[in-house]
Amino acid sequence: MHWLFLSCLKATELIEKKMSFRLSSKEKMQLMMHKAMCEACSRYEKQSQLIDEVISGQAPKTPSEGEVNLLKQKILSDLDVAQK
Amino acid sequence: MNSGSNGTVSLSEWVENYTKDLYSWALHKVSDRELAKDLVQDTFLVAAEKLTSWKRESSPKTWLFSILNHKIIDYYRKKVRQPVSLENQPESLFFDETGDWNTNNRPGEWDEEGKNLLDDADFRSVLQTCLEALPEKWNTCVKLKYLMNKNGEEICQELDIAPTNLWQMVHRAKLQLRNCIETNWFKD
After folding, report:
1. What angle (nearest 5°) sits at the alpha carbon of residue B183, between those of residues B178 and B188?
2. Which residues in chain A touch residue B127, judged by CB atoms under 8 angstroms apart?
3. pTM greater than 0.90
4. Is the Cβ of B49 closer than 8 Å to some Cβ of chain A?
């Protein structure tokens, strides 16, 4: 296979690499070529980015007052035991 | 603040004042209530043990948070080190031996007319369910990537793993996640 051509397995791997790290110029070229020819991997990239956005946009859960109070009591009794 | 005989007194004040913030933080980082509680409990136990080494230059809150953050990273570090079983190699599920998509798992079109998936509560709940259904190790990787607010290099450094490992693990997790979403959301 010509060095410019990637399998879909490799291409999707590079898509993930691109989102956490940087691609080398060669990898960028390879990925561009591949996406130009492969609809499935182009979709994969869009969907993967969407998944990222949804996950990182999730609001942090806020614990309830009661839950926090129970936890405080637990910790205090832990500490009591540890002191003895 | 005195250590020694007054240690207990000050610690219980800290428990009162900082438990909520510590717990919220831990919950955000590990998104598991029981685990988050354990981490906060451990944090205070460590604090009790090391109270004499606490330097007054840092506020108690900063100090407690730094203990908690160590605990969180430790937790993830142990997770990532656990070996992955080979039966769970998903590449072969998704790609044939030449690396082409298997017909059944080839990504389909997700666009639905006028629908913004980003704001769609149902879509988000499908994603959440799929995230929880991931094998533990991959779930850990995805959480790490998004919840630690860190870039790839920093995560690798902290967990002491090679970059290649990280993005390959994320890749596997993503393949499963994507497929699970497509199956549960689009093919109903």
Report:
1. 145
2. 51, 54-55
3. no
4. yes
Looking at the domain that runs over B86-186, which CATH code has it been given? 1.10.10.10
Query: Which amino acid appears at position B84 of this protein?
Result: V
Express each pLDDT in B66-104 by its tens digit: 999 999 988 888 877 665 554 456 678 899 989 999 988
Contact A73, A44 (CB under 8 A): no
Please answer yes or no on whether A75 and B40 come within 8 Å at the CB atom: yes
**Domain B4-81 part of CATH 1.10.1740.10:** yes
Residues forming CATH 1.10.1740.10 domain(s) in chain B: 4-81
Euclidean distance between CA atoms B135 and A12, whole angstroms: 20
Please name the residues in contact with A68: beta carbons below 8 A apart, sequence gap of 6 or more. B19, B20, B23
